[in-house]
């Protein structure tokens, strides 16, 4: 809907499905091959697109609500004398909601800025499953595996709540038909649960990363050369996790990397 010359709004409802199946990776017990049901999702989204300062500032935003039925997640079941094992299960009902904002700015000549922000929350509205942290704690205390089940109704899904990304670049034409593009970028991801209901040690910590690049090229001749650095601050961070029985491992992200690339079009 066009509310003003430089402001549009929209509302969208959509429905999607994900087929069921079974997972056979890292299979130890027959129960891990139990088929899981199809997943369905109804999505509601309300947003706007605007150019409050045409050519200088663009702002877009949206609020969303995802209504899941039989959401497919990795849970655990307890194999006696072995420990918790991963398996796919269906969450009868769950929901995710949040907002997304993005901005593009060109405040002065040669300077270009963009940024994105996402905030989301999710919860189980109906879910009963093995409490893996409780099983592991009991095993450490007693040396015996014992199943503990929890009603996770109302519990947080454990997804990262806040994500941020942005960049600032300097772009200019140079003598002899050359151009340059210099930039710095960064992104932040909030903490994330490693297991259903995970708290404390069962969460991946948040992280912030930076990168930079410098490009020079010639548009008419069709070539450009770039040198870039990812994870500029050489941060130690974890992008995901894996588990085996009572052991949980962080999967680390890449360290600082310096690289370059050449391209030529004809």
UniProtKB/TrEMBL annotation:
Pfam family, one: TonB_dep_Rec_b-barrel
Topology term for the membrane: Multi-pass membrane protein
Record bears the keyword Ion transport: yes
Transmembrane segments: none
GO biological process: iron ion transport
Protein name (record): TonB-dependent receptor-like beta-barrel domain-containing protein
Locations listed in the record: Cell outer membrane
Gene3D superfamilies documented for this protein: TonB-dependent receptor, beta-barrel domain (2.40.170.20)
Xref: SUPFAM superfamilies: Porins
GO cellular-component term (any): cell outer membrane
The TonB-dependent receptor-like beta-barrel domain, residue ranges: 3-232
Keyword terms, alphabetized: Cell outer membrane, Ion transport, Iron, Iron transport, Membrane, TonB box, Transmembrane, Transmembrane beta strand, Transport
Organism, scientific name: Gluconobacter roseus NBRC 3990
Family statement: Belongs to the TonB-dependent receptor family.
Coiled coil: none
Keyword Transcription regulation: no
């Amino acid at each position: 809907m066009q509310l003003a010359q430089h402001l549009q709004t929209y509302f969208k409802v959509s429905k999607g499905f994900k087929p069921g199946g079974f997972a056979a990776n890292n299979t130890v017990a027959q129960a891990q091959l139990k088929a899981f049901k199809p997943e369905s999702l109804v999505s509601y989204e309300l947003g706007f697109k605007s150019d409050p300062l045409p050519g200088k500032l663009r702002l877009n935003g949206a609020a969303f609500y995802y209504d899941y039925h039989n959401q497919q997640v990795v849970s655990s079941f307890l194999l006696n004398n072995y420990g918790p094992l991963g398996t796919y299960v269906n969450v009868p009902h769950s929901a995710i909601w949040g907002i997304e904002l993005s901005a593009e700015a060109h405040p002065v000549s040669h300077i270009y800025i963009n940024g994105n922000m996402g905030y989301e929350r999710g919860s189980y509205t109906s879910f009963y499953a093995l409490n893996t942290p409780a099983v592991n704690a009991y095993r450490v205390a007693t040396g015996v595996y014992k199943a503990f089940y929890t009603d996770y109704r109302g519990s947080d899904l454990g997804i990262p709540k806040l994500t941020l990304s942005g960049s600032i670049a300097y772009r200019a034409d140079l003598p002899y038909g050359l151009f340059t593009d210099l930039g710095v970028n960064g992104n932040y991801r909030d903490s994330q649960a490693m297991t259903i209901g995970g708290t404390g040690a069962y969460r991946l910590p948040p992280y912030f990363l930076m990168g930079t690049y410098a490009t020079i090229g010639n548009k008419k001749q069709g070539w450009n050369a770039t040198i870039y650095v990812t994870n500029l601050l050489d941060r130690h961070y974890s992008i995901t996790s894996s588990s085996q029985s009572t052991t949980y491992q962080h999967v680390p992200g890449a360290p600082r990397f310096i690289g370059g690339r050449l391209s030529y079009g004809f």
